[in-house]
Write a structure and sequence with these properties.
Layout: E1 3-4, E2 18-19, H1 21-24, H2 30-38, H3 47-60, H4 65-70, H5 72-78, H6 84-88, H7 92-98, H8 108-128, H9 131-137, E3 144-145, H10 159-170, H11 178-188, E4 191-192
Parallel strand pairs: 3-4
Antiparallel strand pairs: 1-2
Helix pairs in contact: 3-8, 3-11, 10-11
Length: about 210
């Protein structure tokens, strides 16, 4: 059944438009709707933005996506607007400091993983030219469109996310298992899992 909001609200979110079931049936906050409408599943090629999305996925692990989004501004602040060079230079003292910062999810392992991943991204940039080129190289710069009909069709992981996750692990990334990477690839638009009826389906070229 199509998931449709019935009315507009004071913040400008049009609730009459059809959206994917994961946002319309389980999340009603404007923040979640706006994220779905303007970011989720739309192709991203900017390394800073990709680093931010990867970090949000890592901090979301074990929690709800809405919690991670609520901490987004705090993460932007403590990680220098996701400046890869600056984050890569952060030290153990920074981890201890951020562990006490209430603006973010205070998980030491996730904080350390973010710093580690900035360092891994720099190595990838040296090899591939950019983090974006590396991530998109797995599909020859094409979008995998799963032509999702219903929310139940959406996978938690697939062979592609397993392949990318394995390669990222070999390159030193942390907290990047196939489930996390599948969600990341959805967010950055390599995988298009917008439902077919969704008014915000980018409908890019597909692999299958």
């Amino acid at each position: 059944m199509d998931s449709i909001f019935s009315e507009n609200n004071s913040t400008g979110v049009d609730r009459t438009l059809r959206r994917c079931e994961w946002v319309s049936s389980t999340h009603t906050s404007d923040m979640m709707i706006t994220y779905h409408d303007t970011e989720w599943g739309f192709p991203v090629h900017d390394d800073v933005k990709l680093f931010e999305l990867l970090t949000l996925e890592i901090f979301q692990a074990g929690l709800s996506w809405e919690i991670s989004l609520k901490k987004r501004s705090g993460l932007n602040a403590v990680f220098y607007k996701f400046d890869i060079d600056q984050v890569a230079q952060m030290m153990d003292d920074d981890i201890i400091r951020l562990k006490q910062d209430t603006r973010i999810i205070r998980n030491r392992l996730k904080i350390a993983a973010t710093i580690n991943n900035a360092q891994a991204i720099k190595r990838v940039q040296q090899t591939f030219g950019s983090f974006s080129q590396y991530l998109w190289s797995f599909t020859d710069n094409r979008v995998i469109n799963h032509h999702v009909q219903h929310a139940s069709d959406v996978l938690a992981q697939d062979d592609h996310s397993k392949k990318v996750a394995k390669d990222m692990k070999q390159r030193g990334f942390k907290f990047t298992g196939p489930v996390t990477i599948y969600s990341f690839l959805q967010a950055m638009g390599v995988i298009n899992d917008h439902e077919q009826h969704c008014d915000f389906n980018p409908d890019n070229d597909a692999l299958n």
